[in-house]
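Lab manual, section 2.4: Encoding a predicted structure.

Procedure: take the sequence of the chain (118 residues), apply the prediction step described in section 2.3, and record the output as structure tokens. A sample record is shown.
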Amino acid sequence: MHDTANLSAKLEQVKKRISQALAEYAVNWEAMQGTLDHNDLTGFLSVWDEEFAKLLKEPVQKDILFQLANLLNNLEIQLDMLRGKKNWQTIAEESAASTGELPPELEAIRKTVDATTI
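Recorded output:
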């Protein structure tokens, strides 16, 4: 019981941080168009989404959490590199939820993450 509650709390924390990262990408989406960074991100998200869908066919709680943490880690690593670029806009944690609509590529990932339960 305690283990499940702990995993659920971690899941919610990871979901929130992924949502914040996706919101920051969304704010900068237009500026990223046509760049290698954009291609890297969309390629990674596509592969991650396919692999995560396979994992959900026979879900194991810790594997799901690990894959979400992997997504978060990769998003944050790329964000750290992008934040040093000219004209990159960061967003405050409080405003991440209210940034509006996400581009379709990011929205698909957000929906997958939001629908994930353990």
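Check your result against the sample. The first helix runs from residue 2 to 27.
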